[in-house]
């Protein structure tokens, strides 16, 4: 995926930026951040941030690395960094002062001695080694799942991430509870001949790693910009008057959609102006029950037991009826208001008779030709029957004579007179 500003003509590599798909607009790469401090000049060597942010596996994982020599790395450059008993290759995602803000957001101190260093720019040999080890990942996923199933472990291997030098592999798995994978690590180490690290993730993190398109038509939030996942429950849907339908409220991860929390604060602020304890109102026709609250029109919808119709009431009318009920007075009617919509009603197109306007000469001609062929096919079938009859009459002249005698029974016979 690439944005319109950096699209290429041949489709191989974007032309607008040097990061090969991660432009500064933040719309090309997964988990991309816009560096709005990139034009800030470096004033002092000592006060300049000596840490850069490096992303791995197309932005699914990011980490901070120390750049003590302040090499002029740009966003999108491939660098070799320190790994576990070796090195790893990643892509520079952020440099400069914006990294300090990101470290503060993640509660990472700049003087932390555990921060690893950047070794060098990635060479062609490093890239070849990276491609070879990345090609092993799909096969490792299949084999690791089979081994976990043989050991009867209640877990699912979601993804396997190989280090660039092939000395370490991180197995991301999903499990409902704690899993004793001590024996599993030994089998994995002997099978793949590398150092094994097990990391448990949730269903939302798995969806962010896999990626996809949501019901809104855009990329999943967890795979583009959402980094922290907050708990979502059905109460958020009830406050927004959404139907409790699990198939519609659940995302691709099988959990409730994270976007249910986006507008929840707006609804909670608007619902503060509505009266409380107004779920039931007493009127002369019976008890009116609250159906929903419309925060956009400041209306409360009620229904009566004798009909399925819903009646919209203003907030002032609901408070007045509630105060009357406290005084023991039961009003005659609810006095609903008329809901007027400002939407323009589209006119349906009128029915147009198009039969007389469409020329059917081609169909008529084909139909006429078909009938003519049928007639020509029927006439030759009748002629052979007449011919066959004539042949039979020629072969049997006595029969012909008998037919003539039957047709003219009173015709005189002159043959006898001639003999005399």
Question: What structural class do helix, strand and pairing data support?
Answer: alpha+beta
Q: Which segments are poorly predicted (pLDDT under 50) over 5 or more consecutive residues? A: 1-27, 383-395, 411-420
Shape summary: extended
Termini Cα gap: 121 Å
Structural notes for this entry:
The chain has 420 residues and is of the alpha+beta class. Among the domains are: 31-122, no CATH class; 132-207, GMP Synthetase, Chain A, domain 3 (2-Layer Sandwich), CATH 3.30.300; 280-326. The chain contains twelve helices and twelve strands. The chain has helices spanning 98-105, 124-134, 137-150, 182-192, 203-210, 234-239, 246-249, 264-271, 315-326, 361-395, 397-407, 415-419; strands at 51-56, 61-66, 78-82, 87-94, 116-121, 156-162, 168-174, 195-200, 280-283, 286-294, 299-303, 310-314. The protein starts with 50 loop residues before the first strand and ends with a helix.
What is this structure's SSE topology?
Elements: E1 51-56, E2 61-66, E3 78-82, E4 87-94, H1 98-105, E5 116-121, H2 124-134, H3 137-150, E6 156-162, E7 168-174, H4 182-192, E8 195-200, H5 203-210, H6 234-239, H7 246-249, H8 264-271, E9 280-283, E10 286-294, E11 299-303, E12 310-314, H9 315-326, H10 361-395, H11 397-407, H12 415-419
Helix pairs in contact: 3-4
């Amino acid at each position: 995926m690439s944005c319109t500003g950096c699209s290429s003509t041949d489709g191989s590599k974007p032309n607008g930026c040097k990061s090969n798909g991660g432009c500064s607009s933040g719309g090309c790469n997964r988990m991309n951040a816009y560096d709005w401090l990139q034009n800030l000049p470096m004033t002092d060597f000592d006060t300049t941030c000596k840490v850069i942010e490096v992303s791995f596996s197309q932005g699914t994982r990011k980490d901070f690395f120390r750049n003590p020599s302040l090499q002029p790395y740009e966003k999108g450059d491939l660098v070799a960094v320190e790994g576990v008993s070796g090195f790893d290759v990643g892509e520079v995602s952020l440099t400069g002062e914006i990294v300090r803000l990101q470290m503060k957001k993640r509660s990472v101190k700049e003087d932390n001695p555990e921060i690893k260093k950047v070794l060098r720019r990635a060479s062609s040999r490093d890239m070849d080694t990276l491609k070879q080890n990345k090609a092993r990942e799909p096969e490792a996923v299949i084999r690791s799942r089979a081994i976990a199933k043989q050991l009867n472990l209640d877990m699912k291997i979601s993804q396997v991430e190989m280090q660039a030098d092939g000395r370490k592999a991180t197995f991301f798995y999903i499990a409902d509870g704690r899993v004793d994978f001590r024996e599993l690590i030994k089998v994995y180490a002997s099978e793949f001949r590398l150092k094994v690290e097990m990391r448990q993730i949730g269903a939302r993190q798995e969806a962010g790693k896999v990626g996809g398109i949501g019901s809104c038509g855009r990329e999943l939030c967890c795979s583009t910009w959402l980094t922290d996942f907050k708990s979502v429950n059905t109460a958020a849907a009830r406050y927004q008057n959404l139907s409790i339908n699990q198939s519609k409220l659940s995302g691709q991860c099988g959990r409730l959609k994270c976007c249910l929390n986006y507008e929840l604060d707006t609804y909670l602020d608007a619902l503060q102006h509505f009266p409380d304890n107004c779920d039931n109102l007493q009127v002369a026709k019976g008890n009116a029950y609250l159906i929903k609250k419309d925060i956009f029109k400041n209306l409360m919808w009620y229904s009566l037991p004798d009909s399925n119709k819903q009646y919209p009431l203003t907030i002032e009318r609901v408070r007045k009826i509630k105060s009357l009920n406290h005084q023991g007075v039961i009003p005659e009617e609810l006095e609903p208001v008329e809901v007027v919509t400002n939407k323009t009603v589209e006119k349906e197109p009128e029915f147009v008779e198009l039969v007389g306007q469409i020329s059917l000469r081609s169909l008529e001609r084909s139909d006429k030709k078909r009938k003519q062929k049928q007639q020509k096919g029927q006439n030759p079938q009748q002629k052979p029957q007449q011919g066959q009859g004539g042949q039979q009459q020629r072969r049997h002249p006595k029969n012909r004579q008998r037919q003539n005698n039957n047709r003219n029974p009173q015709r005189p016979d002159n043959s006898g007179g001639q003999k005399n």
